[in-house]
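User: Here's a chain of 246 residues. Predict its fold as tokens.
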Amino acid sequence: MKTIAVIQHVEAEYLGFLEDHLEARNIRFRYFRPFTAGGTLPAGPDENPGEFDGLIVLGQGPLGIVSGPLVPTLAPELRIIRTFLDHGLPVVGVGLGAIMLAVAAGGGAEEAPLRIEVGRATRENADALGGAMPESFPYATYIRDRAVLPKDAEVLARNEAGEPVAFRCGASAIGFTAHPGIKSAMIEDIIMEFEESPDDVAEKLESLRNVQGGIAEALTSIMVGLVAETGWMRQEETAQKASSPS
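Assistant: Prediction complete.
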């Protein structure tokens, strides 16, 4: 059974719909909350080899990497991501976590305002995520700042403005600038957790509620490709899960 370390940055954020898909595949995950009293970050493969089969770094809300209130544990998290990459272990970045992945992989970050983005993404190539990524799918995220991808990164999907929504850095590192398992209640709770929020919150939350069903539907296909490409399940197991009735 595979075990994934998951780093959170605020109380209300979590894997969302991703939890159900991981649990259905018997993939365990363990949350780390460094922002809480006594909270820690996961040990990297240098310190504790074999403890984790991959890393997911979340990031929804007002924390930034180059602007606004910065992630307090930014430097050690970048080191942990880099260590996982150096050991060839899968890393999945979500939201701000995707920006951190881009930085750790040799890219960068640039300032962008705190915003709730809701839109539609289009895959770049038919073989994105091993052909499992939908041709077009809705997305949503609550984020600040923007990723500057490494030169060797591969964009898997873009939004209407041409910005990356999903990208790959190396063999098994995937970034999703939009949370693929997002739930509107998660964003509502994060907004209530902080004083700062965008001006158009009510309008964007309504837009998110309208597309949440489509986001959950797209995730079914996305997860097939994600767990296969990260090696968290063998391809034949993934195909069997995808074809089995829920």
